[in-house]
């Protein structure tokens, strides 16, 4: 992961591994047919952070639009840290937490908008949740960085457990509407599932930490359990893929090293690239008006932030700060 060789952190290598494998995608109503919804003062931006000194983290929330970019509230986690965020059509917030629970396994908490109240917790079928999204039928897809028999990546601060870190075998757990236990899994072709995003045809795209210098994206065609590497052209051979989402037009959007690339055909060569302000975008999501929010794990030494790219802009118009010594792991937008 050479893009991060200059970062000065006190976290263990295993902690850094899991922190870099976190992202999230949300349902994308903006790419459905019809008028694009307007931005609203009721829309909230959520940012999951990791404090590099303590290994704990928080979810901060902000007004997604307007001139006030200061955090209006936060939810701290002292056991483990939030590794992924996504929202549903009601504005409820899903927080994937790792390094917590039995033997370091993770879970997903669901909160009302503004993180005001805990609604439910998903734990069954999850090991190291890193992101999530919904398909058009309401099924929830949750990416996991490690396999169904937990591997070392799920024990990021467990000093008593050994292991080489090889054979992590991440996966996607699929939860039917209303269920708290997965009905099926997607695993073939995945090493470490960084996150998950679905296109309008319910094809599943998984940013994948290959364990080497060339991370990739695995696609599962709708209804298939066999993953295939997405063929991209023109990307650096030495690459980290930190996050994925879909824009209002249906283009696949991924963060690659210090850039955000757009693929109108979900493969091939990038048609557009954002680089201004982008250093390590570990989270990508769209607001209802088509604003792209990108969470930098680090934009300068020991400090992350969130960038807001308005529709049609190639440079951010606003930035949202997080506390010093905190990196942004994931971002999401939801109404309240």
**How many structural domains in the coordinates?**
1
CATH C-level name: Mainly Beta
Low-confidence stretches: 1-21, 24-34, 148-167
The rounded distance between the terminal residues' Cα atoms is 38 Å
The helix-and-strand class reads mainly beta
Strand content: 35-45%
CATH superfamily: TolB, C-terminal domain
Overall strand count: 27
Q: What fraction, in percent, of the residue positions are helical? A: under 10%
Major sheet: size, sense and barrel closure? 5 strands, antiparallel
What is the CATH topology descriptor?
A: Neuraminidase
Instruction: State the CATH architecture.
Output: 6 Propeller
Provide the succession of SSEs. HEEEEEEEEEEEEEEEEEEEEEEEEEEE
Radius of gyration: 18 Å
Number of helices: 1
């Amino acid at each position: 992961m050479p893009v991060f060789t200059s970062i000065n952190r006190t976290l263990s290598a295993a902690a850094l591994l899991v922190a870099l494998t976190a992202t999230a995608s949300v349902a994308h109503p903006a790419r459905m047919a019809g008028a694009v919804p307007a931005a609203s003062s009721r829309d909230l931006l959520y940012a999951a952070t990791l404090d590099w000194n303590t290994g704990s983290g928080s979810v901060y929330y902000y007004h997604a639009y307007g001139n006030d970019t200061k955090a209006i509230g936060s939810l701290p986690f002292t056991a483990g840290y939030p590794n992924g965020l996504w929202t549903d059509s009601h504005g409820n917030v899903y927080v994937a937490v790792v390094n917590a629970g039995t033997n370091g396994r993770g879970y997903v908490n669901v909160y009302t908008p503004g993180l005001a109240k805990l609604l439910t917790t998903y734990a069954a079928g999850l090991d190291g949740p890193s992101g999530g999204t919904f398909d058009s039928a309401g099924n929830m897809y949750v990416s996991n960085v490690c396999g169904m028999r937990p591997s070392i990546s799920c024990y990021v601060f467990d000093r008593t457990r050994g292991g080489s870190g090889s054979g992590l075998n991440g996966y996607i757990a699929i939860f039917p509407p209303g269920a708290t236990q997965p009905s099926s899994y997607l695993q073939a072709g995945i090493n470490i599932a960084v996150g998950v995003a679905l296109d309008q045809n319910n094809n599943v795209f998984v940013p994948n930490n290959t364990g080497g210098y060339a991370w990739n994206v695995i696609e599962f065609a709708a209804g298939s359990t066999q993953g295939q590497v997405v063929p991209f052209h023109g990307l650096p051979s030495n690459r980290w893929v930190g996050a994925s989402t879909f824009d209002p037009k249906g283009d696949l959007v991924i963060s690659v090293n210090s850039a955000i690339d757009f693929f109108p055909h979900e493969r091939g060569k990038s048609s557009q690239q954002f680089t201004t302000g982008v250093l390590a975008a570990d989270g990508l999501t769209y607001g209802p008006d088509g604003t792209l929010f990108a969470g930098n794990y680090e934009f300068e030494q020991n400090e992350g932030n969130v960038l807001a790219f308005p529709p049609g802009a190639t440079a951010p118009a606003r930035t949202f700060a997080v506390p010093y010594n905190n990196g942004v792991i994931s971002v999401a937008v939801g109404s309240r």
